[in-house]
Amino acid sequence: MNGMLIEEIERLDRNFLTPSEAAKAMGISISTFYRNYKKMKFPTTRVGSRLQILKAL
Questions:
Q1: pLDDT, tens digit, for every residue of 4-48?
Q2: Which of 21, 28, 30, 39 has the lowest tally of Cβ within 10 angstroms?
Q3: Are the C-beta atoms of residues 53 and 24 closer than 8 Å to each other?
Q4: Interhelix angle for 19-26 vs 30-40, to 10°?
Q5: By C-alpha distance, which of 36, 8, 38, 40 is closest to 21?
């Protein structure tokens, strides 16, 4: 599994990543991300049922 490059993340026209994008950036599976994201203490927010990981505070 290839990770996302920093340049790819910076080009996104929004201030958050989806769980799938965050997992790809870290080089882990989406299931591993969901299992551990609370332990990783990412700044997250929910919009309805969707989880968003903030790119910067």
A1: 677 787 787 888 999 998 898 888 999 999 999 889 888 889 999
A2: 39
A3: no
A4: 90
A5: 8
